[in-house]
Amino acid sequence: MNWQIITICVGIVAWALISQRLSKTLLTLPMLFVGFGYLLGEAGAGLLDIRVDSKLLHIFAEFTLVLVLFSDAASVRLSSLRRHAATPARMLLVGMPLTIALGTAVVHWLLPEVPLVLALLVAAILTPTDAALAQPILASLKVPEHVREGINVESGLNDGLAAPVIMMSAILAAQATGTYINDAPESLFQFVALQLIVGPLIGGGIGYILARLLDRCIINGYVSPPSRGIAVLAGALLCFTAAEQLGGNGFLAAFVGGLTLGNTLTSERDFIVEFVEGEGQILTILTFIIFGAILLPIGLSHISWQTILLALSFLTAVRMLPIWLSLIGTGMPTAHKLALGWFGPRGLASILFVLVVDEQFNLPGFEQLISVVVLTVLMSIVLHGASAQPIANWLGRRSNSR
Question: In the record, which residues are listed under signal peptide (predicted)?
């Protein structure tokens, strides 16, 4: 185990030392650490054996996902959306349900032996987007603001909106396949109601109280700058644990808690982003290493023409058509609609959701569907990572020529 830790740490240090240089190339952090995990894992050189206790992996996935949901939501400033609120609102309220519905239909069509609820589960897992793979778009001032805002806000909010759909469809899939679930709900209707009501209430309450306490303590000089990030981490875990304890959806609670904190905190909130980009990035790196070492070999071992076609479909038609339909009537240029549809990269949230569902529900035949998720995320990491900068430049030239 010590040699495994040494190997991972050496890889992270090597990346950190040349990270500025790498930022000027098409090589992204996800590309590097997925490849690092795969090459060192059992499918590669066999130098990295990270077969861990499933419970430990489940805890890691939950912990990371809670922090991602909380911090993504906290970074969305609702007051700044007034000028361009229509774009992300359409993408979330119209495009997202259409994406899940179309994705479910495509999975069921290409894999007719898969129960409909399992097809729904895979579509829901692959709906959340990851703005980290589109950083050149978000960072370029040449790209129109409504495009940058649409991509950023959608990726910040769709993780939390997808969470209850994923957990609900996982329970239905377990019932449909006769899979035993620990602490299975007696009444699905009551369970759904508690998940959708208790989670947001707990998260909103904790987020609001934490914001007020942080404001008061920052004003009075009681809290040190490093401790603010620790408070965010503890607050995210508090939202999740309290909601789960009371029968609510912990992921939804973490999402609403972060959204509430980020939009009721009156003090400077840059510490949230700084904490996530520092301590939080270590978790992101470890997630991509786990993806490369554990999930990628599973996905590649169950590869078929159906899984390849499904992965391509989720990155193109299943994503782009619903987004296009959701933006009809906005008067937006075709190039902008295409950019918003294309930049729906799948990354961290999809990886973590599939880890949580696989460990918690252990659904029969899920390996083939894991392959769909793995191939989609892998293609997304490569295609979106490589195309982000060229498309940002292209959008900038088009905007300057108008």
Answer: none
